[in-house]
Design brief:
By secondary structure, the protein is mainly α. The chain starts with 5 loop residues before the first helix and ends in a 16-residue tail after the last strand. The protein is elongated. The protein contains 16 helices and eight strands. A hairpin with a 2-residue loop joins strand 1 (30-31) and strand 2.
Length: 315
């Protein structure tokens, strides 16, 4: 018979503890410190029954490498949760911040579109995967709402702009937000470079050129003249003509000379003499520049005006 001492007693407790824990795991279906899906279904019956209808469940069932995936694959060990019954004792990605739930999702979602997630605007704004996605949703609905309503739930200013008189055809169902935006941090779709100009030209190819006579803003950035989501001005312009044009170009003095009635001469540029009326200023401000300068994005044909060297974009 073994003599009793404290060291032997502690050893017996440790051995018996392991034995008792092993019996509990076997009796509850939790083998190797893992809880089977059947155990989860005892409480979460509806979620477990419907899971195979979800995109994740479908993918798991058709991928041999993931056939053994369990609830614990995403929710972590359920031992403490089963013992206490407390929700906080189980990992719930929907309740985690961007340093918890997102890391879990990105452990499987490793495609190139997620490469720049850490530097994305959504990540910087503390947007998590569960803010937009519902993992347990059935019938293929991975996102909690369809676009653009999902995007509008945060971007209310874009919703307002998209309903202005001039807008991209988002409301008409011909475009989606993700056609232009890389939602997970990847560069926008259909572009070679991650710049606003290249993005616009991926659809508006006729504006790209190169042209013999170029308009400088077109070569720099489309957003100098256009606003992408919507505008009260035609053609998504940031403001109406001629105010927009006059923010860079001076007025045509021969067309908007004030208090001149009749013909006038210009000694320094005789070829630019002309005629005016008392209301010529009003006429000039109520006329779109593009009525004469019709090839505003660029042209291969010289204009007739001598003083511009052909670069007036009139044809």
């Amino acid at each position: 018979m073994l003599g009793f001492n404290r060291r032997n007693w502690r050893g017996m407790l440790a051995a018996n503890g392991v034995l008792i824990l092993g019996l509990i795991l076997i009796g509850t279906g939790m083998v190797g410190a893992a809880v089977t899906n059947d155990v989860c279904a005892d409480c979460h019956e509806e979620l477990c029954e419907e899971f195979h209808k979800t995109p994740h469940g479908t993918y798991f069932s058709t991928n041999s490498q993931l056939a053994e995936a369990s609830c614990e694959s995403c929710h972590g060990s359920a031992l403490a949760h089963i013992e206490s019954g407390a929700p906080e004792d189980i990992v719930n990605p929907a309740r985690q911040d961007q340093f918890g739930g997102e890391e879990l999702c990105l452990s499987c979602h490793t495609g190139h579109q997620f490469d720049d997630w850490a530097f994305s605007a959504h990540n910087a704004a503390d947007v998590t995967c569960s803010d937009c996605h519902t993992v347990h949703a059935v019938d293929g609905a991975v996102v909690s709402q369809s676009t653009p309503d999902l995007c509008y739930s945060c971007h209310s200013d874009v919703r307002a702009a998209a309903n202005m008189p001039s807008h991209h055809p988002i409301a008409e169902g011909k475009m989606e937000c993700q056609d232009c935006h890389g939602l997970h941090g990847a560069p926008a779709r259909f572009v070679m470079e991650d710049t606003g100009r290249e993005l616009c030209l991926s659809c508006h190819t006729e504006k790209e050129g190169p042209f013999v006579y170029e308009h400088a803003p077109v070569e720099e950035d489309c957003m100098i003249c256009h606003t992408p989501h919507g505008s009260v001005a035609n053609n998504l312009l940031v403001q109406n003509q001629p105010s927009l044009c006059l923010s860079c170009h001076p007025m045509h003095f021969h067309a908007t000379a004030m208090s001149v009635d009749g013909d006038f001469d210009t000694p320094q540029a005789p070829e630019r003499a002309g005629s005016s009326t008392p209301d010529s200023f009003e006429r000039g401000m109520l006329t779109n520049c593009s009525q004469c300068h019709i090839e505003i994005h660029g042209s291969d044909l010289p204009s007739q005006e001598i003083s511009t060297g052909g670069n007036a974009l009139t044809r």
